[in-house]
Write a structure and sequence with these properties.
CATH topology of one domain in chain B: MetI-like fold
Strand content of chain A: 25-35%
Number of helices of chain A: 9
Largest interface: A-B, 24 and 18 residues
Mean pLDDT of chain B: 86
CATH class of one domain in chain B: Mainly Alpha
Helix content of chain B: over 70%
Number of strands of chain B: 0
Largest sheet of chain B: none
Number of helices of chain B: 14
Distance between the termini of chain B: 19 Å
Order of helices and strands of chain A: EEEHEEEHHHEHEHEEHHEHEEEEEEEE
Number of domains of chain A: 2
Radius of gyration of chain B: 23 Å
Shape of chain B: globular
CATH superfamily of the largest domain in chain A: P-loop containing nucleotide triphosphate hydrolases
Radius of gyration of chain A: 23 Å
CATH topology of the largest domain in chain A: Rossmann fold
Structural class of chain A: alpha+beta
Oligomer: heterodimer
Largest sheet of chain A: 6 strands, mixed
Low-confidence stretches of chain B: none
Number of strands of chain A: 19
Chain lengths: 334, 276
């Protein structure tokens, strides 16, 4: 079981309020991602759940029981850190065994679980090595192994992939997703990378300055962002936000349109602009178009075969069904 | 940027380093030589260097006249005991200051260091009164406690410097893994800080071994360590340079040998944190 409820949880360091009182419910077995720009309080929130930081006020309940005052060791949660935080003086085997040893588990059961975890994470050949002799990806696996052996109520991940190179990151992302499918245990994952959030999460929690901006499934957030911040944060490249005459035509303060929801033509369209930088990725071409009133430059996605040159004139037409509207407070207008 | 060192410069610096080293080592060398002279040769003018009748008479006399084994035992018990007691107290203190510092942690550290600036003689009288009150004058336990108190600031400072080099996330990981404070310190912090703790222990054994003010003033016979043993060969019995030298060599030999074998650890310990 791993149901976690935050009730009016608040965190302040001295006079600085990092997390204003917030409520959040995480259901058993859910993969929840906290995402937001750096300094938004997502890591602090995770550390509050872990018990590594004390709440200033409010309650944290794990499986219906108040855990607010419990030390981390007593909460039954496991955590994977950004720096891996392996014990450098212990072999891989001892690292993985550490939580079991702390729990006072008998040796036979310890060995059985370590063997099982090592096999699942491709670590069998490295069990006698020290963390210093492993690559980044292997270290991350050891950290995950250390977390899974004790069969915790929930896993907490604090930006676990940010120290890995891009290729490895994609691989580990899938491994963690698969692990979640297999274990069916609650996972809370903190990242500043919206791609990780979109690809892994059942539920995304978008945070800014300690406030929850929106909670929802990846596609809910993509299709109906509650405000301009979420609209700009979820989706890559970012949504274009237009103010001024184009928005006024719709009777709103800001109009939003994603790069992939704009039709581009060399002959006719609603808006006229000139090509600035064009990024050819092979599968797609991202173009920065200048000259559209209220949004300069505007980003547009076209197919990989679309060939244009710097300075060419192009015509753009937003797809009407994908237009997002926001009022002067930045909130979504239906 | 590599700096060019000419052979001439190299010879100059080498010579300078050797001269400095010999200058510092000279008193020990002279004491060593004197300890093998007769009392007459020891005070001869001009002094004799190497060509005299070497004799071990002084060592025999010193061993006969006083209880060297007892003094040695006392020194070992006092130096090792005070250091270990200090470590037991300092580890949690340094842990708290390194990993959960408060607003006043820096002030506390400075305050602790400031106690080292106090002249020891300033608290001699109260110390003697307290010892008398508890009836522990001339006891090993008193010396263990007093020397521990005197060196505690240094032990805490050294451990604090080492602990600060350890990433806090690893300690947090151990907490997440179910370790309480005791297990966190025993299984994670101490093994990771072991080189630092070893240096601290070595340095403090040396400091306690050489401490002369309190060890001489608070002991008479039963708890008298080697410092008192040396002192007993000076003033009261007149000027017996050769015997005094023999006693000195016997007193410093154990610590000198220990220092020799742990040189690498000591140098690393003393420069740790200075170059990062």
């Amino acid at each position: 079981m791993g149901r976690i409820q935050l009730k009016q949880v608040k965190k302040a360091f001295g006079d600085v309020v990092v997390i204003p009182p917030l409520d959040l419910e995480i259901n058993d077995g859910e993969f929840v991602v906290f995402v937001g720009p750096s300094g938004c309080g997502k890591s602090t929130l995770l550390r509050l759940i872990a018990g590594l930081e004390d709440t200033t006020s409010g309650n944290i309940e794990i499986d219906g029981e108040d855990a607010t005052g419990l030390p981390p060791a007593k909460r039954g949660l496991a955590m994977v850190f950004q720096s891996y935080a392996l014990y450098p003086h212990m072999s891989v085997r001892k690292n993985i065994a550490f939580p079991l040893k702390m729990a006072g588990m008998e040796q036979g059961e310890q060995d059985r679980r370590i063997t099982q975890a090592a096999a699942a994470l491709n670590l069998t050949d490295y069990l006698e090595r020290r963390p210093g002799q492993l690559s980044g990806g292997q270290r991350q696996r050891v950290a995950i192994g250390r977390a899974i052996v004790r069969e915790p109520a929930a896993f907490l991940f604090d930006e676990p992939l940010s120290n890995l190179d891009a290729a490895l990151r994609v691989g580990m992302r899938m491994e963690i997703s698969e692990l979640h499918k297999k274990l069916d245990t609650t996972m809370i994952y903190v990242t500043h990378d919206q791609v990780e959030a979109m690809t892994m999460a059942d539920k995304i929690v978008v945070l800014q300055a300690g406030y929850i901006e929106q909670v929802g499934s990846p596609l809910e957030l993509y299709r109906a962002p509650r405000n301009k911040f979420v609209a700009g944060f979820i989706g890559s490249p970012k949504m274009n936000l237009l103010e001024g005459p184009e928005a006024a035509k719709l009777g709103v303060h800001t109009m939003g349109i994603r790069p992939e929801h704009i039709d581009i033509s060399t002959t006719e369209g609603a808006w006229t602009g000139t090509i600035g930088v064009a990024e050819h990725l092979g599968s797609d071409t991202f173009m920065h178009i200048h000259g559209i009133p209220g949004c300069d430059p505007m980003t547009v996605r076209a197919g990989g075969e679309f060939t244009v040159k710097h300075g060419d004139t192009v015509y753009l037409t937003p797809q009407a069904e994908h237009i997002h509207k926001f009022d002067d407070k930045g909130l979504r207008v239906p | 940027m590599a700096r060019a060192i000419t052979p001439r410069k190299k010879i100059m610096w080498t010579a300078l380093a050797w001269s400095l080293g010999l200058l510092i080592f000279f008193p020990i060398l002279w004491t060593f030589l004197t300890s093998f002279k007769t009392e007459a040769t020891a005070i001869s003018d001009p002094p004799v260097w190497f060509f005299f009748d070497w004799t071990t008479e002084n060592y025999r006399a010193v061993l006969e006249r006083s209880n060297y084994p007892l003094a040695l035992t006392n020194s070992i018990i006092i130096a090792v005991g005070s250091t270990l007691l200090g470590i037991i107290i300092a580890v949690p203190a340094a842990w708290a200051m390194a990993f959960v510092p408060g607003k006043r942690t820096k002030d506390v550290l400075l305050w602790m260091l400031s106690t080292k600036m106090l002249p020891a003689v300033g608290v001699l009288y109260p110390m003697v009164l307290i010892a008398k009150f508890f009836d522990v004058l001339d006891s090993r336990i008193l010396l263990v406690v007093v020397l521990m108190l005197i060196n505690l600031p240094i032990i805490v400072w050294m451990l604090y410097t080492y602990f600060r080099e350890i990433p806090g996330e690893i300690l947090e990981a151990s907490r997440m893994d179910g370790a309480g404070l005791k297990n966190e310190i025993i299984y994670v912090l101490m093994p990771m800080a072991l080189p630092g703790i070893a240096s601290t222990i070595l340095l403090n054994i040396i400091l306690a071994w050489n401490e002369a003010f309190w060890t001489i003033l608070l002991t008479t016979v039963d708890a008298a360590p080697l410092t008192k043993f040396i002192a007993s060969f000076s003033a009261p019995e007149g000027l017996f340079y050769a015997k005094l030298s023999a006693a000195s060599i016997m007193a410093i030999a154990p610590i000198l040998i220990m220092g020799w074998f742990s040189q690498k650890q000591l140098v690393r310990g003393l420069t740790f944190g200075a170059v990062k």
